[in-house]
Structures are given as C-alpha cells and as structure tokens.
Specification:
Blueprint lengths: L1 H13 L4 H13 L4 H14 L4 H14 L3 H14 L4 H13 L3 H14 L19
Amino acid sequence: MNKARKHYERTVNIIPENATVNNNLAHILWNEFNELDQAREYFEQSIEIDSNFANPHNHLAKLLYQEYSENEEARNHFEKSLEIDPEYADGHYDYAEFLEEIGEDDLAEEHYNRAADLDSELANNDGKGEDDIEGAA
C-alpha cells in the first residue's frame, strides 16, 4: 500500500482539486497508515472540492465516529451521503452500523435492509467495504 500512497500523494500534488484523488488518499492514510488527522483533512478537502460526492461524506462520517467519537457530525455526513446518493448500498450499511452502535436499532435495521436490497452481498455482511477506494476493481 506504500506504493499506492506515494502514487496518490504525487497525484494530489499535480491535481489538488480532484475530489476522488483526495478521497482515495484519505482512505489509504486512515486504513493503512492510521494517520487520522491527515486522513480527515483529505476527506474534508474532497468534500470542499465536490460537496455532492457521497463517498467522502460516508468515509468522513465513519472516521468521525470510529476514531473521534464525534457522533453528531458523523450523523450529518452519513445523512448527507445518502441524500446525495440514496442508492449507495455501502452508505446505508455503514450508517446502519453507526446507528446500531449508538443504540438506534430500529433505524439501523431499516438501513441494513436497504443496503441488502441494493447489494445482495451486504445481506451477509461479506461485501462491506468494496467501494472504499473510488474506481477500485
């Protein structure tokens, strides 16, 4: 993953106004290098570049609640992500996990069901995370 990190860091220096590149670099920094503050900055930059890009809203929400315990801000980003793309299966699944974590089980179940309706792999929880890096195969 170090090679991917270097690639995205070079790319973000060349085209800093690319929301996808910022989102993908943030994802790598968080999940592979545990560089939370830097990841947060790149997710926020991605959203600043394109506020209608659902993926970084979802990932920032996950980061905020899992690493910073900023649940209210996390909720806002989850909801914005799903407002932008109501068909975003992983977004519904991740929001359901968050809701379950904070004790909103009924609403969580609705989002788990919606995620499963949109992506049958999520029905068994084995498809989670496949869209983490935008454009990844």
